[in-house]
Amino acid sequence: MRSDTRGIRNFLPRKKWFGFGPRDQPQPPAVNNNTSSLTDGSPLPQQEEPRPVITYEQMLQEKLLSEAGQLLIEKEERLFRELKQSDALTHHEEQVNQLKADRKALQDLVLQTLGQSLCLEEDSLAGLTSAVKAVMQEEDQDLLWKQRDQTPPSWRPSGWRKLHDSTLLSLVKERMENPSTPSVCQIKLTTIQADITNMGRQLKEDLLSVVGGVKRCYPQEMDICNFYSKLYHQTLSASLVNIADFGLVDKDCIFLLRWVNEYYPEILAKPQLHSEIDSGPLGKLLPEKLLKSLEDEYLSNQQGELTTIIRRVLGEEREKWNKGEEPETEDGCFFSPVAYDIIQLINGKVTSSTKVLGDPHKAQRITCHISKDLMDSYKSFQSDVIKQNKANSRSFIKANLDCIKQFSEVLNKERHLFTEDVRKNCLHVLTDMKQSAHTYLLQPLHERLKPQYRKLGTSDWLHQSKFNELLDGINKEGQDLQGSTESCHKELMGQLEQEVTVEYVSRLLKGKVKLKDKKQQLKAYLTVKDNAENLHHLFVQMGSEEDWLKEILFKIAEVLKLQELPAIQMELALLGTHYPDVSEKHVLALLKLKTDLTKADRKTATDTLLTLEIGSNTPPRSFFSLVQVK
Question: Where are the residues of the annotated region Disordered (predicted)?
């Protein structure tokens, strides 16, 4: 049955066209500007040609959906508002049924247009604009009837807004279930990886279409970009949950986590989408419980891989040592690949895990067992090397020093790789390893230098030739300490200079030499000062950079030279300020060398330490705590 078109002519107000987007405006009727003469010669008045009649079917055919909807609303108003309701039902039943049929035809076409929203060409968006406006008109009409004290037509409320939403949801699900075929080769991807990739690509392309074209067909208050993003988020989330529940091998689990934590956020962060879509309320693609389970499984696997490789690297190094092989050399220095290999491994694992998990703090969990799996095992290996003292042990320890330095630098500079407690524990182990390595390398030298050490602080010591014997011994024995990298050798020489200086001060404070008068004290001053300069000069040549050690001997020499008690107190105050670990015993032992000082003078001088307030631009150092005095 054809719809009733009587009275439809000129149903639109003049100069008004329904719709949001640009479209071809209906042309106003042509105006006849020609004049013809009447029999009396006077011109005829101008006449407008009648507007063409647009039937309802033509409106549907031309996708004038909002105009068609407005027409039906006007007919509805006439039937159910202008006429009495009983009259409408009794005498206009045929018109009511026709109106219902027309509404059904319009609804079907509106939903069909909405279902094609994401595959419309640019010049076809006007139809979508009209369909959206038809939905809005229906929603407004539903609201009007809700406010009226009158029984509405059977189709009210029409619920077209809900139909709109459900239609777009169906559209999104269909496109995500059947994504477009990619043009690139996916041979290297597993089936699961290919499915996730295709869904993600479809999501990105469709959201770009929404913000690039579809958005213009909607009023701002409908917030269509965020509506679509929510639909796609929910649909992709449901698919990924199903995939995760199916059970995943490691590489598929990693791929899924990267989509959740890296690739998907990157899509939403694209400038075109970020400016239109609020991604905050969307949240994660997977429920928290499921996501945590997958992340825990991933972290456990990564920790296992890290531990396995670390053990293999250390095992290979131990095997080389057991076989009696020498470490590799580079530029004349012993070199071990242990630190470099493990550092690269740790950095790679944590960096990639940060992307997979989307959180650097979670990624740090990979290294939570590093102090036990790596440092304790490495320390145990070094202890065995030192304890067994094989022919190649010293070479391995020299190579280890560089590894210890590399590990320490990473722990101090690349803090993002470790939790703070792990970092501190590892640094503590490395400090012990470095000290034990230095002790192992230096102890034989000290043993061989004992005859020269015994002459320090004695009467013979005041003769320069005796101290030169010590310098010659250090220079000769120090040749055996070559073989570490330059930076490690400098630290080793600095440690040796400190230990020799400690030995020097310890021997001096034993009090075997008695300085009875000013002349002897001046002689001791010159000797200590000269010894300090020569000793430091030698160690600088050997690579040490510990300039501060000679200053200690200079200050001790000053105390020996000074004769006035206030001057002695002043120098002791400076000594205590720079080296807070100097004790009353140390000062008393030093002052006892000056036998012309009374017991009361020594007591007055040592009391100076009790009144010191440490405050200096130079950080205080620890030295005297290493000097044992009785």
Answer: 16-48
